Amino acid sequence: MIELDLQLPRLFADGQGELRIQLSLESHSLTALYGASGAGKTTLLRLLAGLETPVVGRIVVDGDTWLDTSSKINVPVQQRSIGFVFQDSALFPNMTVRENLAYAAASPKDALIDELLQKIGLESLAYRKPDALSGGQRQRVALARALVRRPKVLLLDEPFASLDATTAQSLREVLGDLHQQFQTTTLLVTHSQEDIRQLADRKVEIERGRVKTDEDKAPEPTPMWGVITKLDRENGYLETDTMQIRLSASAPWPNDLKVGDEVSLSWKRRI
Ligand SMILES: Nc1ncnc2c1ncn2[C@@H]1O[C@H](COP(=O)(O)OP(=O)(O)OP(=O)(O)O)[C@@H](O)[C@H]1O
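A: This is the predicted complex of the input protein with adenosine-5'-triphosphate.
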């Protein structure tokens, strides 16, 4: 669990204000942060990373206090277990793809380097320099580099924003796979509904330094009950106001079942 409580004066486009954010993030979740330009999304990531310090605040990550202004705790950025990917992440231009990962890794021999190269589909380009990569390939490397130290928190600031739609989609899929495998608690700043739809467990809207809306994106539970609207005994098929179902051969099929009855759907196969 990550607990954030942050307060910082900020000059917004329409004048002086205050960023004031309280958020709890479930471990292993992927939360999308969205909202108008200048709302404070990047600032929130920078505060979490330790690149900025709030006037008043507390950050606790899995029980470790990274920041507590009341007791003057402020763990420096290098000691916070964080991976960061920006819109245009800078790789070291003089190093190959593999060297970029090895440099960020805890040990240059870490087996995770090659595992990540394979996961991002860039094994064959491992000995190329960043200059010889496309924008999408560079972002893949940036994502792998952010994960190679097995951080507790992954911060992604519009990582697909500079990519064309097809490249963005393939990187989104890579991110989805990596998130499923590594389960790194992730904050993703995005303007894209597609990112939110495909990747996020939860979406938090930021407006002028505050949480405006905070929605759990867990799928609606499957309805267990429905009122029959159509009944086709011959074909073993019925529809209710909540779903369509086909009866399995072994399912009981009460003789007196009729349109308007409310039925439990749990014993039937969804179609
Ligand atoms: N280093 C800074 N010092 C002071 N104010 C800043 C700094 N960086 C950004 N701001 C201001 O803080 C506010 C929030 O900026 P921030 O970059 O966090 O917004 P954002 O929601 O990430 O926007 P965008 O979607 O355009 O990236 C803006 O009004 C911005 O001008």
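The chain has a mean pLDDT of 88. Residues 225-270 form one domain.
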